[in-house]
Specification:
The protein is of the alpha+beta class. Helix content is 45%, strand content 23%. It contains 8 helices and 9 strands. A hairpin with a 2-residue loop joins strand 8 and strand 9. The radius of gyration is 19 Å and the shape is elongated. It comes from Chryseobacterium contaminans.
Length: 215
């Protein structure tokens, strides 16, 4: 059990809560590409991510629409929300890389919301963070051209994984942006010709300083 993570994340709730957390938390290692939950499935746990990243999305006609990524020290807003209703997941969640998480049974979390009302601060923090991310996604989809959306998506993946260049296929980008592989291939070529990215055998590289074009 990662005691430093627990204290940093939940220390403000006091020792009684920390003892409860230690008693009920389950430490889980999650392999990359593992499906954690799917739409329509009953949520069993609320995850708190120690390391790695998890993609939260929905599917429509086989195409993904990404809502947000859970990063280190984050939790899943949609899982939190299910506690107040029927515990049924309305999203898919898949590990983007090898990850480590602390899992709390949803029934226990429901009880904690009554016994330790200060825990609601965690919910509101997650809500504020996810709402901002979803609004950014909607703004991107409505107001930006596809080349801008593709470039923003690549930057997002680099930010999530910490890898630059990043290994990602044209089909993965297409699925996540709701378009076709052929369209993404043409857009990537245009972005590369514009000097915003460099495509190599190691992956797609974006300039760290966005004002500097790659040569």
């Amino acid at each position: 059990m990662n005691n430093q993570f627990i204290i940093q994340k939940f220390g403000f709730l006091g020792n009684d809560f920390l003892n409860e957390f230690q008693k009920h938390a389950v430490l889980a290692d999650i392999k990359s590409k593992t499906e954690i939950v799917r739409e329509g499935q009953k949520n069993k746990y609320v995850p708190f991510l120690i390391k790695g990243s998890i993609k939260v999305f929905t599917l429509n006609d086989g195409r993904e629409l990404i809502y947000y990524y859970i990063k280190e020290s984050d939790s899943c807003l949609m899982t939190f929300s299910s506690i107040f209703t029927d515990y049924i997941s309305r999203v898919y969640a898949v590990a983007e890389e090898d990850s480590e998480a602390l899992l709390i049974p949803v029934s226990v979390m429901h009880e904690w919301l009554l016994r330790f009302p200060e825990i609601n601060k965690l919910f509101y923090r997650e809500y504020d963070k996810r709402f901002s991310e979803i609004m950014s996604m909607v703004n991107d989809a409505v107001f930006h051209r596809l080349d801008k959306r593709v470039l923003n998506y690549i930057r997002q993946q680099i930010s999530v994984t910490g890898n630059n260049p990043i290994k990602i296929t044209h089909r993965e980008i297409a699925n996540n942006l709701g378009t076709s592989r052929e369209v993404v291939s043409r857009v990537l070529k245009k972005i590369e010709n514009d000097g915003d990215i460099l495509i190599t055998k190691e992956g797609i590289k974006v300039a760290v300083n966005e004002n500097v074009r790659l040569i």
